[in-house]
């Protein structure tokens, strides 16, 4: 093989490599777009029916359970709210919403957990940062908790149908505002100047009332004791027991007439 022959075979490789790379990128892009667009159809009517059956099978009770969820008063942005709720909902389904094995309700929960794992690809990861931001502890019935979970799935489905890429929105700024609000509230609790003043105004009258009550009780007991002592002395002085006078009088009474 001559040098020219060897050189003559190089050009096809040179132009073929960029072409293959371009084809791979186009195929990869179409696959990614197709997978992302699949987010808009991921939550089906069957999943919402699972949740409705869980709600319908719950016993009505006033007993409440504690769970952590998004505080909608702090996080008003609907997209950021659902991103944070989705992250917390996974923990709730794993730790709180437990049913007896091999029952319809346990089967529904497994299917919903599988759905939430598939939905992870539709959310950017900023919801996992600042984990406790915009979160508070709720005390509600199991029925109310299931209603919250159903609303999250339903609203997520509605937004994904409008725009499959909507949850790529960066919510770090919204989560940071919640964190700053939480720190300010803690500061106000610890350094609130009105709290010591309120405690002082409440404590002083209480102490005065207790002292007055104790003083009144001591005064009453002392006065009663001083009132009883002169009567005892007078009665003992007027007629002492076993005195000669008493004995003479008794004798006189006993003598026959």
Please outline what is shown here.
It is built from 8 helices and 2 strands, in the order ααβααβαααα. It has 257 residues and is mostly helical.
How far from one another are the termini? Answer: 175 Å
* Largest sheet features: 2 strands, antiparallel
Strand-and-helix sequence, N→C?
Answer: HHEHHEHHHH
The pLDDT mean sits at 74
Which term fits the overall shape?
A: elongated
Unreliably modeled segments: 1-35, 186-191, 243-247
Spatial extent as radius of gyration: 43 Å
Structural class: mainly alpha
Strand order of the largest sheet: 1-2
User: Strand fraction band?
Assistant: under 5%
Could you walk me through the main structural features you see in this protein, from its secondary elements to its overall organization?
With 257 residues, this protein is mainly alpha-helical. Helix content is 69%, strand content 5%. It is built from 8 helices and 2 strands, in the order ααβααβαααα. It has helices at 3-37, 45-56, 78-95, 104-119, 142-162, 172-190, 194-238, 244-254, and strands at residues 65-70, 135-140. Strands 1-2 form a two-stranded antiparallel sheet. Helix 3 (78-95) crosses helix 4 (104-119) and helix 3 crosses helix 5 (142-162). The longest helix has 45 residues, at 194-238. The relative contact order is 0.10. Residues 1-35, 186-191 and 243-247 have low confidence and may be disordered.
What is the fold's blueprint, element by element?
Elements: H1 3-37, H2 45-56, E1 65-70, H3 78-95, H4 104-119, E2 135-140, H5 142-162, H6 172-190, H7 194-238, H8 244-254
Antiparallel strand pairs: 1-2
